[in-house]
Amino acid sequence: MRQFLCLLLLVPPLLAQLQCPGGSSFFDFESCDPSRRSQCPAGFACRRGSSVTDPKAVVNLCCDSSVMSITDWFNEAGLTPTVIPQTPITQIPLLRLGDLAPGTSSPEIHISDEIVTLTFPDFTTAIVNNLQLSNNLGGGGFVHGITIVDPLANPWAVFASLNIPWPGGQFVDLSSTRRNSNPAFQGNDGFFFSHIANLTVPQKNSYRSQYVVLLYQTIMPIPTTIQNDIANCANASCIFPLLSPLQVGAPVAGSFFYLTTTRPMFSIGTANASPSIQFLPAIMAFIIAKYLF
């Protein structure tokens, strides 16, 4: 009993005034920065905590993430409702990207994972090959996988595998659509398209982007003309009003992760300047040649 009382006396009063959201457990009371990489151990996330004595204080702590719902993840990441109006119904527990390099497979990726590819200098863009759902998704209609890169920023990008006939199940293969990257040649496996905003990023040693993966299911296919509509969007939030009239409801599943690379998919130049006319097509050609075929 004496030892327990001594321990209590060693705890600074400030620590007892901080708490994690929903009463979840904390790793320690060192503050964390949600914009920085890998500050919390496995099973914990940098979450918006609170102060008992000062409700207006901004407190970020490494808190237990095992109790977080997909709504918690998207709300706390600032994705909903800022950009994505409806949170996914369920979480995507596992997804895989295209190979990091010949003979080197990508790791299994879970929500909020940090993928660092600095030892793979040719890997600039994460293209989702397939994903595993937590439960069977009933068959019928079509599924659509949409990946938005840096939806809260500019420049941003989108990669979409649309109109995949859905027989039902838990495993979704998005890679088959890349054989039909031109909507004019849409086949039985759907089609793929990408859009990369025509803006530049400043020169840095490394580049960290947020990738948000959303899976939708519809009865009818999505018109291929949506590619042209999205190409005219000024920001990522423009995508969802375009989907709404097509009877595309809430995502049936979703996830997000972070990718750090040595080279970005965007053109490099002065912030907010227009990219070189020659450089952007070169980046696009590299992405298409390396990851889509």
Number of strands: 17
Question: Which class do the helix and strand fractions yield?
Answer: alpha+beta
Spans with pLDDT under 50 lasting ≥5 residues? 3-14, 271-293
- Overall number of domains: 2
Radius of gyration, Cα only, in angstroms?
21 Å
What about the largest sheet?
7 strands, mixed
What's the CATH class of the largest domain, please? Alpha Beta
How would the global form be characterised?
A: globular
Q: Which oligomerization state do the chains in this entry correspond to?
A: single chain
Cα(first) to Cα(last) distance is 67 Å
**How many helices?**
5
Order of helix and strand elements from N to C terminus: HEEEEEHEEEEEEEEEEHHEEH
What does the average pLDDT come to?
85
Report the CATH superfamily of the largest domain.
PEBP-like
Q: Give the amount of beta strand, in percent.
A: 25-35%
- How is the CATH topology of the largest domain named? Phosphatidylethanolamine-binding Protein
CATH architecture of the largest domain: Alpha-Beta Complex
What is the share of helical residues? 10-25%
